[in-house]
Design a protein that fits this description.
Layout: H1 2-16, H2 21-28, H3 35-46, H4 53-65, H5 82-93, H6 97-109, H7 120-128, H8 132-135, H9 139-152, H10 159-169, H11 179-189, H12 194-206, H13 213-225, H14 231-234, H15 239-248, H16 253-260, H17 263-266, H18 271-276, H19 298-301
Helix pairs in contact: 1-3, 7-9, 7-10, 10-11, 11-13
């Protein structure tokens, strides 16, 4: 019986149309347990047509007041604006991965007259802007999965898209918690981004990335994975942070020292950095000149003076 109903639902719904007042009334107050059927009805109503403003308003009101499951919003997303999508975006990321992917497709599709609600770069930024504590999401389970789902769509999330998103996020304060993870994912997916990523890492040095412990770990992993490109970035670190990096990744020391020993590089480095790299010995650091420790000879100091 239920299979027969579901099979004939599309014909009935298309015949009634979204402007049918009784249908809108049912959608606004659906019977308990009818969520799956309601979702099917909404997909049919929004498929290939421009939904009426009344239908969009009815679905939004239903989610805000009675049905908190964001699944109900998926068919509506292509008709919403950026200002309407961003507040509900964490709820969409909180959906099971297959449903989030459906939601993402609708957001990027947009409507014929207004275009997508969010661009691919804005999607990436919105994912990173989610605060797990505030939005009640599990970081690993949802936000990381959402990022990975984006990286799988290489024709949509191109290296230009990633560069635009990362360039925007690096200027945020505070930096997104997943920022370094995404930088590493970006360079793994698109190796030609390496020079751009070096610019990002240089900006992070100027932002004193070592003061952000979780991001500092990712920074060090990134510079290790991108050597020798990252050598010039490593040499921008203050001596204590450089020493910390070399203690963490000891295999960096010899190739970095060889790079820094080039005359054109060495002359630009502070002596303290050269000491850490073992290029000069600490004992070679010029000590302040100390004159004789003995007291001056009184007779020679006052030669020719007449005592009074």
């Amino acid at each position: 019986m239920m299979q027969a109903i579901h099979r004939h639902i599309p014909i009935l719904i298309r015949t009634l149309g979204s402007s049918y007042s009784e249908l809108l009334h049912i959608i606004s107050d659906p019977p308990q347990g009818s969520e799956n059927l309601l979702t099917q009805v909404l997909h049919i109503l929004f498929e290939g047509t421009t939904p009426s403003p009344d239908l969009i308003a009815t679905v939004k009101h239903l989610h805000e007041t009675k049905l908190k499951d964001a699944t109900i919003l998926i068919p509506v997303l292509s008709s919403l604006s950026k200002a309407e999508v961003l507040p509900i975006f964490p709820r969409l990321v909180d959906l099971p991965l297959d449903k989030f992917q459906m939601a993402l497709a609708h957001i990027l599709q947009g409507s014929a007259h207004s275009g997508p609600a969010l661009t691919p770069a804005e999607v990436l930024v919105a994912i990173h802007d989610i605060t797990p504590e505030k939005d009640g999401l599990a970081l690993k389970k949802h936000i990381m999965d959402a990022c990975s789902a984006c990286f799988e769509q290489r024709t949509v999330f191109t290296q230009q898209v990633l560069a635009k998103a990362l360039n925007q996020m690096v200027d945020q304060t505070p930096l997104p918690l997943l920022f370094m993870r995404t930088v590493i994912q970006a360079i793994d997916a698109y190796p030609p981004l390496v020079d751009f990523v070096m610019e990002i890492l240089s900006k992070l040095v100027s932002k004193q990335i070592w003061r952000m412990p979780k991001l500092w770990v990712g920074f060090l992993k990134c510079v290790f994975q991108t050597q020798p490109h990252s050598f010039r970035v490593l040499l921008q670190l203050p001596p204590p942070q450089l020493e910390s990096a070399l203690n963490k990744y000891a295999n960096l020391r010899n190739p970095l020292a060889a790079y820094a020993s080039q005359p054109s590089i060495r002359t630009s480095l502070p002596r303290s950095t050269l000491v850490i790299l073992g290029i000069v010995n600490e004992s070679h650091i010029q000590q302040p000149h100390v004159t004789s420790l003995h007291a001056p000879d009184a007779s020679s100091s006052f030669h020719g003076a007449t005592p009074t």
